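Cross-check.
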Amino acid sequence: MLTITATPRHTGVKISGDYFDLDELNQAIYRVIGDEDDYYHLEGSRMRILGVCYEIRHAAQGDRNVESVFNGLHEQVKKQHGFIAPDKNVYFSAEILWPEVLYTAIALKNFTKLYRESVEFPEWDIHLPIVHHFQSLILDCLHGHVKEDEYQVILKAFNQAASVEDYATQYVDYFNLQYIKMTKQQREKSLSTIAVKLANQDKDYQTFRQQVLKAATPAKKAIHEIPLQAEYPEQIEW
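Predicted model, tokenized:
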């Protein structure tokens, strides 16, 4: 079963599941976001989502965290059916920073809408429910770590989120890097604000975007091709 839980220091979330859970999620996201250049103005957001998929894929391959999880098989059941079997399953997991996974949930709205319009019978599509479930798990995890009134504001912001076409995805890096530097208490206090700001594209975002565009124009590059002049730490305390 796919699960999403907050990490101990509230730095991000841990996406967990068995191999098939994680592989199914990856395959569904790959299908929904399409191929390179299918949606040119969404390419920056597509690349961000692929970054999350990269971590999920490596988790499924056992390159991240491996843990044993109780599978519900009690001794009484074993005796009743007369067989010997382990009572734990192997689960894999990977951590993703909170701002990154929140933006992923927002950006996937655009891709699921376009994908739904591209298939003849979306109500019977196998990939859309998997992606929607992933988005819902992210929000459900967030719900457990913010106040109820704040969560309702976040839900409204996510529901009304503007298109992420030509989104300055460096803004996600900005929040990621700020978030890493915070204490656990600061993260808990700022999480709802970051979630809303990622969705609302407010004045702060517009100012940030204009700065990125100024850097993009001389080089004649697309906005998502301009690198942020900052580096992530090699080790993150989750």
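The mean pLDDT is 92. The beta strands are 3-6, 12-17, 65-70, 88-97. Passed to J.P. for a second look.
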